[in-house]
Each structure stands twice: as C-alpha cells, then as structure tokens.
Amino acid sequence: MYRVACILATLLLAVGCSSNDGGEPNDITSPDGRTKLHFTMTEAGEPAYSLTFDGEELLKLSRLGLTTTDADFTEALTLVATEKRSVDECWQPVWGEYAEVRNNYNSLIATLNTKEGRELKIEMRLFDDGLGLRYIISGEGTAAITDERTEFAMGGNYFAHWMAGSDDDAEFNYMHTPISDISPATMQQSAGRVTDLIECGVATPIAMKSEATGNHLAIHEAALWSYPGMALSYDNATQTFAAELSGDDKVKSEVSLPFSTPWRVVVVGDRAGALVESNLILNLNEPCKLEDTSWIKPMKYVGVWWEMHLKESIWDMDGAYPHCATTENVKRYIDFAAENGFGGVLVEGWNVGWGRGERFDYTQPYPDFDIEELCRYAEERGVELIGHHETYANVKNYDAQMSDAYAYYESLGINNVKTGYVGAIEGCNHYDRVMVDHYNRTVTEGAEHKLCIDIHEPIHSTGICRTYPNLMSAEGMRGQEWQAWNAGNCIDHNPTLPFTRNLAGPMDFTPGIFDVRYHNTINKAAATADGSVNAEYDYVYFVNSTLAHQLAQYVVFYSPIQMAADLPDNYRERDDALQFIRDVSVDWATTRCLDAEIGDYCVTARRDKFSDDWYVGGITDGEARSVSFALDFLDAGREYEATLYRDGAMAGWDSRPTEYVIEKFRVTSADELSVAMARGGGFALQIKAL
Predict the structure, then answer these.
(1) Measured between alpha carbons, how far is residue 183 from residues 151, 345, 382, 489, 550 in Å?
(2) Domain with CATH 2.70.98.10 in the chain
(3) Cα–Cα distance measured from residue 663 to residue 676, given in angstroms and rounded to the nearest whole number
(4) Which of 75, 481, 536, 639 is flagged as catalytic?
(5) What is the rounded CA–CA span in Å between residue 92 and residue 326?
(6) What is the pLDDT of residue 249?
(7) Distance CA 665, CA 631 (A)
(8) N or C: which end of the chain has fewer CB within 10 A?
(9) What is the mean pLDDT of the chain?
(10) What is the DSSP string of 269-332?
(11) 514 and 658 Cβ atoms separated by less than 8 Å
(12) Confidence of residue 196 (pLDDT cuts 50, 70, 90)
C-alpha cells in the first residue's frame, strides 16, 4: 500500500518570506538550489515562466494558459495573489524502482482573474529533478475546455531523441536530431509510413541534451484523468514546443468544476542517467486509493505468444493452421513456468471472435480451451493464468462486456489481464478524452475485481500506477514483437527507450528472446489462376541484438511484470543463460544509472527489494564498446559473488549473436569492472551478497 512513511516538513509560506523565492516574489528554487523557476505576467497580461538549471536557461520565457467556451485564460489576465509552499515527505510504493520515494518540492500557486472575474490558478512545483505545472479552474458547474497554451521555449538548439506524434499510434522509430531538424519530412521518417500525424508535432516523452553543458531534460505529462492526451506542436522559427491536445472536436474536454488539469512535466538533470533515476512523474500523482493491495504481485511470466509471431500457430481456431490456445498446449507452458519459478502464463487466442470479423466474446472460450481445467492445473502447480482481451479497437463492444468479463475472470481466480486495441477506433482515437476515460476505466473497474491490467496500444503512461498500482504495465512503443515482422526495430531503439518511453512508466517490452536469429516458415496459398497451389516461404529474421543484450533488458527496462518471451524449447537449449532470468528481480529497492548516452548505450544497476543482491544490465547500439563502472554502490566491507553473462569474443547482433560467456568471481565495493559489449550486444551481472 502506498503510505506516507515520514513527513519531514510541510510548510505554508507567505509570499516573499521564504528563502526559496530566488530573490524575486514570483520565483522559486528547487530544494537543492540548482533549478530555478521565474514566473511573470507579460504586458499583454499573459502568464509566463522560464526555467534555469545550474545557471543554464533550459526554457526561455514561455507562455501559459488555456481557453474554455466561456473564458479566455491566456491574455488580459490580472495576477491577484501568489502563495508558496514547501513539502518534504516520503512514501512507499507497492512495487517500483525504489522501496521508498522522497517527495520534496517548493511550489508557487498563482491566482489569476479575467476581466469578467473568472478565476484560474496555476500551480508550479519545483523538485530537484524538475518541474510540474498544472491549471486549476475554479467555480461550480462545468467547463468546456477548447484549447491549452502551455509553451516550452527551448533555450538552445538541443539535441533531441523524439518520435512522431500521432493520435492513434506510438509504435514509431525514434529520431536523433537537433530540434531544428524536426519537420513534417522527419516526422514521416519516424513514422515509417504516411499517417495522421499532428502537423510538425512530436510525441512525449521527448528527451534532449544541451551539447554546451551536458545538461539533459525531458518533457511529458503526469496524472492524466478526464482530459485528452498531449503531444507537442513545434515552431522551428522560435524553437518552441507547445501542448497539442488530442481530438478533432472543438471541445477537447468537458469537466466538472473545480478541475485540475494533468501536470505538464519537465525532468532535468546533469547527465542522461538522471532521467532514468527521476521519480518526478510518480510524485505528481495522487497516493494509492486502494486499501488492500495484497493481491497485486509483481512477477515474471511466460506466454502462448511468440509462437504466433513466428507463425508456428495462430490466434484463431479456423482449422487451417494450428490453434495456439489449446488445453494441451497451454499445459506445456504451465509446466515450463512451474519448473522455472515463473508466476504466470499469458494465453492469447483463447476466446471466440478471432479472425472472422466477429465481435469478441470475453466470457466464451474456444471449444478446445478448457479454461476451468487450466485454472485448476495452473493453481495446482503454483502458477496463474494471465488473461487476454484483444478488442481490435471495437471499444463499444468491450465497454459493453467489461463488467461481465472482469467478473468472469474473478470467478476463475484470474487476476491479471493484458488488453489490446489494435486498429482505428470508430468515432474517436487512442489519445482523446473518450479513450483516456476508457483506459482509466479498465484500471478502476479492474481494481474492483482484483484484476491487474497490462494495456497494449495504450494512451501513454503518466504515473497513475501510483494511484492505482493494479495498472502494472503498458506497451506504447515498438516492442519486441516488431522483431518478428516488418523491418524490426532500429539498432539504436533499445538504448533510447529508458530515457523516453520507460521514463513515462513501466513498459511491457517482452524481453528475453534467445533464438535471436531464426527461420520463420509460413504456409500460404500461392497466387495462381485456380488458387490450388500451396507454396512454402522461408524467411530469416534478426532480433537486432545478442543474447546477452536480451538478458540485460530485464535490468535496463523497468516493469514489475516481465515476460520470458521466447519459446520454452529455446530456453531449454540454453538453460545456463536462462538462470539469469530465473534469478533477476522485478521489484527493486533502489536504482542507479551508472553510465549512459541516449540512443548509444545504457548501464543500469538495481538492488533487489527483498535482499541485498544487485543486478546490473548494459546494452549498446550497433557500435561495439567497453564500459567501466565502479561498484561503490555495494556495502563497504562486504564480499559478493558476481556472475557475469557477457558477449563472446566473436559475438555481434548480425554475426554469432548467441555466443555468450558466463563468468563467476568475487567483488567488493572497492572494485571497478570493465565489460566489452559487442555490436548490438550487452551484459547482465548478478552480484549476490555473501
């Protein structure tokens, strides 16, 4: 249960009487003094702010405000009052990258009035790791929000790691360019296809680096409720990003008053790793609303999943190809999970409605899938079934069945479900207010049935897993499945994710593919005059990483549920490497990013929440490189046994990718390690306390 562990200080401070005011009545400084925010009103009555970190103006004067159908809160406003607050408290997550999180900030709340007397508050909280700001519309009744003007005027032509912005898709390639190179052309290059992109906009989180100082920042949002998702439009002439709300309608969101918008977030740090270590997005969300969280359990799991992407079976029970979700096949996965200590088995393709254009039925299994027998069989072996609800974007159908479907799973003792929203949604899109409400309903109603949720094709994560920790994970990026079809992922994709998508919250990347270079055989009817000839096509695929890189993903990528995504037989062939997946934690006491350059490489260390064991993962892009790091995070005066899984001397993602070496040795906190990573390679290190 999330709970406040220690409240060190909570102060309400009058304007001008605090040392955190930076010397100006409307300035605030972060608790460590490194980050400063200046708030002002322009001559036109526009609220505006700027942000400085270590003396560098990361954000120049940037305008704020929003509009409703009956009020304009962007200009001709009067600053009525300001107040400052300081908060320093600790809270403990149900699961996470830290066992305890410090929530420490100085804040400024500005109260503004229109000429007609309508009131808007702008709340700005400044943490050591960045800024959160939001709007609070006062009054009673309702308001129809039509637009938002939140600007981020960049202090320089920063080097950015970004993805095209779209109302319906987040599975694009990342671009690595100066912000001045963001254009419609590079947007389409990121998307890889012509799509309904927001004109010259980018998705969030977007991460950037100041080449002059090495400072880093990222822009995103937090606590997304009753509001459309945000992308960023971009004005190259002024190098300014601005909030772009999803949805085609003039009214973006009708809300009940008083209403607080989601937080607009700027994460800052003096190195790339500071973005990984930040808890800013979680701290801007409300505490846990669930009294009982004992049923929420982080786990590693396997699944009837990769075999369909390899075309060894299919989701549908149509008789032409092997059906994946048969009672016999699922029992094989349950046995494998039980043998290796994995907590769950995901089963896709179990219910009626696949492949025939029918509506899915979420309480009707296929005839060859005995769900009650499988639940009994799994429980007998200490394993849980993980349900699957694909919607094919028929949200109305899913909404109509959700309560019954969740109650059905609850009656069977299933408390984890993966949802999916492949395709275009009729009448709305994945990021507008309608779908934000829908996604959040799956979480809140899931909690009523003690059901944990893993959303695929989701709205981007915004930290609401603090408030509802049954939201365990989500997709929202080009995951591992892309390595089984199309062109796969770019070689620099994985070293970008910790600073972009994973910054927003846990991500279900589905790591752990051991057969990283494989043949994919597909039986098809050849295009002949009479349609009678069958042809067999043999494809060779690359997962664009080494096996050691795949192991490292369990540490570098964060999620409290992690899939061992490959086929059981592929794991059995390399049981010694599988040992790392058996051992690695999914729930952590602390996290440190030891070394990183966004898009190039990342080395992350995490300590297990329930022991003194540490795990370190390192991944690289297409360039082979060696990394060195001190083990000073270990307890001084204590000895540890280290097990290193690294690339072999001849390994590379495109040549001998499954060549790996396992070494054991003793280490202490005084040691420093140097590890070589192959092209597309990596390493995984277990450091076990003795």
Answers:
(1) 18, 43, 53, 22, 34
(2) 3-283
(3) 13
(4) 481
(5) 41
(6) 84
(7) 14
(8) C
(9) 92
(10) ESSTHHHHH--HHHHTSPPP--S--TT---EEEEEE-HHHHTTSSBSS--SSS-BS--HHHHHH
(11) yes
(12) low
Q: What is the pLDDT of residues 499-516, one digit of tens each?
A: 999 999 999 999 999 998
Q: What is the pTM of this model?
A: 0.94
481 in catalytic set:
yes
Give the residue from 408, 423, 428, 138 showing the smallest Cα distance to 261: 138
Closest CA to 176 of 196, 158, 154: 158
CATH numeric code, 3-283:
2.70.98.10
- C-alpha span between 68 and 137 (Å, rounded): 10
Q: How confident is the model at residue 200 (pLDDT cuts 50, 70, 90)?
A: low
Structure tokens at 341: 């200590």
State whether the Cα torsion 236-237-238-241 is positive or negative. Answer: negative
Pairwise CA distance, residues 564 & 572, whole Å:
12
* 258 prior amide bond cis, ω within 30: yes
Q: Which residues sit opposite 13 in a β-bridge?
A: 84
Q: Where in the chain is the domain with CATH 3.20.20.70?
A: 495-515+552-690
> Which residue in 199, 153, 198, 197 sits closest to 179, CA to CA?
153
DSSP per-residue string spanning 660-690: EEEEEEEE-TT-EEEEEE-TT-EEEEEEEE-
Tens digits of residue pLDDT in 301-326: 999 999 999 889 999 988 788 999 99
pLDDT reported for residue 357:
58
User: Tokens 């040795």 identify what position?
Assistant: 665
The length of the chain in residues reads: 690
Tell me which architecture the domain covering 495-515+552-690 has in CATH.
Alpha-Beta Barrel (3.20)
Distance between CA atoms of 525 and 611, rounded to whole angstroms? Answer: 55
Counting residues of the chain whose pLDDT is more than 70, the rounded percentage is 91
Q: Residue 187: what residue type?
A: M
In this prediction, residues 488-506 reach a mean pLDDT of 96
Roughly how many angstroms between the first and final C-alpha of the chain, as a whole number? Answer: 31
| Sign of the dihedral through C-alpha 397, 403, 406, 411 | negative
